[in-house]
Design goal:
Blueprint: E1 2-6, H1 11-22, E2 26-31, H2 34-40, E3 45-48, H3 58-61, E4 66-69, H4 81-103, E5 111-117, E6 128-129, H5 139-151, E7 160-166, E8 168-170, H6 175-185, E9 198-199, E10 201-203, H7 204-216, E11 222-226, E12 232-233, H8 234-245, H9 255-262, H10 264-270, E13 275-276, H11 279-283, H12 293-304
Parallel strand pairs: 1-2, 1-4, 2-3, 4-5, 5-7, 6-13, 7-11, 8-10
Antiparallel strand pairs: 9-12
The chain binds NADP nicotinamide-adenine-dinucleotide phosphate.
The site of NADP nicotinamide-adenine-dinucleotide phosphate has 28 residues, from α1, α4, β5 and β8.
């Protein structure tokens, strides 16, 4: 199978490319900087693409069987009007250009897996949320909603579209864990913003596993939550991380500390409670390698050392 991956140089994308290559797939990576991408993964077939301005090159699209759409500028930054515009453009314009390009391919792909985020649901307190829950409000809820709507444009190509509303991907080399490591290693880690909010985490192997599974599972269409079946509160997460790192997890950090670093809007959004569960993936038979948090963290940190 020939699979195009956008965002292939990123944290999730690079792990996905490795897994697809191990499976024997032909992997085409689209990137703004092929030289940099090739240096990190020479076995992917890289093509240059300026995603906000143009359609992907025809050479990349030729003979494509499947597409995984992971592109997007990080939301973990001060959400100024200019940053919001870049964050939106990197998802909406790139996805529109991708879909328009696929429409011109000699043989359009049979399946597309497009990324989204559980931020879609907004603040939900202790309520358990599956894929039927309505959208929330605020920038980090409206962003995935608009991204999903743009990806739905691919349905006109008569392909199967699976949208993964992804939780916090646990990978010690990037994302949230990398940011938490320093305070925990210094012995000043602990619950954030009171610690009562729910975190829909997912081990990177299950994130990659779900994408690979969705590519092949004919019933995987529409929206699927991509998070472990057992979300935890931030306090439970901090305690588990402290145990795994053998460091205390008792120093609370107020929301204002995140606001000082990244601004109040991001601080509000990242501490929103999403008790999301992967109801549809479980119903369709996906088997999580890491359904429970502490073994997931132990696995990630044992591999890192
Ligand atoms: N990590 C998580 O916990 C998580 C959770 C839910 C959803 N997501 C979403 O999943 C996607 C992949 O996540 P990730 O953690 O792998 O992200 P990442 O490591 O930041 O990689 C994102 C990729 O998008 C491209 N990109 C970044 N900024 C861009 C811009 N301004 N314009 C065009 N392209 C840009 C980059 O590709 P090139 O530099 O090669 O062009 C990069 O490789 C993102 O959209 C993210 O929001 C992630």
């Amino acid at each position: 199978m020939r699979v195009i991956v956008t965002g292939a140089s990123g944290m999730i994308g690079s792990a996905l490319c490795d897994a697809l290559l191990v499976r024997g797939e032909e992997v085409v990576g689209l990137t703004r900087d092929p030289a940099r991408a090739r240096a990190t993964n020479p076995t992917v077939s890289w093509h240059a693409w300026n995603p906000t301005d143009e359609r992907p090159p025809q050479a990349a699209l030729a003979g494509v069987d499947a597409v995984v759409n992971l592109i997007g500028e990080t939301t973990n930054q001060r959400l100024t009007p200019a940053a919001k515009q870049r964050i939106l453009d990197s998802r909406l314009r790139s996805t529109k250009n991708l879909v328009d390009g696929l429409a011109t391919a000699s043989t359009p792909p049979r399946v597309m897996v497009s990324q989204s985020a559980v931020g879609y649901y907004g603040e939900r307190g202790e309520a358990i949320i599956d894929e039927s829950a309505p959208p929330g409000s605020g920038f980090l809820a409206e962003l995935p909603a608009a991204w999903e709507e743009t990806a739905r444009g691919a349905e006109r190509l008569d392909l199967r579209l699976a949208i993964l509303r992804t939780g916090i991907v646990l990978d010690p080399e990037g994302g949230m864990i990398k940011q938490l490591l320093l305070p925990f290693r210094l012995g000043v880690g602990g619950p954030l913003a009171g610690g009562d909010w729910y975190m829909p985490w997912i081990h990177r192997d299950d994130e990659v596993g779900l994408i690979g599974w969705a590519l092949g599972e004919q019933r995987a269409a529409g929206v699927l939550n991509a998070c472990a079946p057992h979300p935890v509160t931030n306090r439970e997460f901090s305690t588990a991380l402290g145990r795994v790192l053998r460091r205390p997890a008792i120093t609370p950090a107020p929301k204002i500390a995140i606001a000082a670093l990244r601004g109040g809007e991001l601080a509000e959004a990242v501490t929103e409670s999403h008790r999301a569960v992967p109801r549809r993936a479980l119903d369709l038979g996906y088997s999580f390698r890491f359904p429970v948090l502490e073994p997931a963290l132990r696995d990630l940190f044992s591999r890192r050392q």
